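[Automated response] Your request has been received and processed.

Submitted sequence:
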Amino acid sequence: MTPKLALEFVLLAALWGSSFLFMRHAALAFGPVATAGLRVAVASVVLAPILVASGHWPTLRRHGARILFVGLLNAGIPFGLFAYALLSISTGLTAILNATVPLFGAVVAWLWLGDRPGRWRALGLALGFAGVALLSWDKASFKPGGTGWAVLACLGATVLYAIAASYTKKYLMGIPPLATATGSQFGATLGLLLPTLWTWPAQPVSADAWWAVVAAGVLCTALAYLLYFRLIEAAGPARTLTVTFLIPVFALGYGALLLGEAITPWMVGCGVVIMVGVALASGLLDPARLTLSRQRHPATRP
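Generated structure:
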């Protein structure tokens, strides 16, 4: 990866890591549903002219129904669930739970597409879900004031991301990524339009909250999507996927510096367990392949 691509990679992680900070600030004023609706609406406004200029508008029209539907699974509902969770749990914990998407993605691909995981990927799934259980165990209280529902909301969002990934692989392969990304924001905006109006806050919202939701839409959604697909094209999907490991680092840092959130050794340790599981489950870390490579290319000794 060239220095320029590496810089864009870090920028993408920084943008997605900051999304939890912006969404929390906006959700406190707008509520979870309106925050999600505004975020995708802002992203749609930014991405629409880029889509038209790229010449991919006819492609979106041909595949509109499926692309709009996947937008609810991949943006609209998950954004709302994360905004709800951020009202009661830290941005760092939310980001770590968000990093489990590849784990659920592997399970959904196995059950739906028949993509059966091998031995090491299965171990990664077990390790990753064990890390989630350990991280969430003392937080999964459903009593008044507990955060169990917030944790479940995060995990529900990651399951929807995973379903959207398999749906895209099954029905939307070969479609230009910009058409899928923009159309999905359109679909999420349409799907959340009425719920956003129904849950609109009765009191005036501060300028800071408006800036937070605009930043989430422009920087963490529209710009981040453009960077993401550019990196996939230039560096390949496998390398780009490793951004998953860097997002919680930024989210934890933002939360500690700007919100005074505590970073506990237990949270860090469970996060490491989850990341190792994600690396194995997604195939980014494959001990069998590394062993085979060493056998074919043994190291020379002086």
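Summary generated for your ticket: The longest helix spans residues 207-235. The CA atoms of residues 240 and 268 lie 23 Å apart.
If you did not submit this request, please reply to this message.
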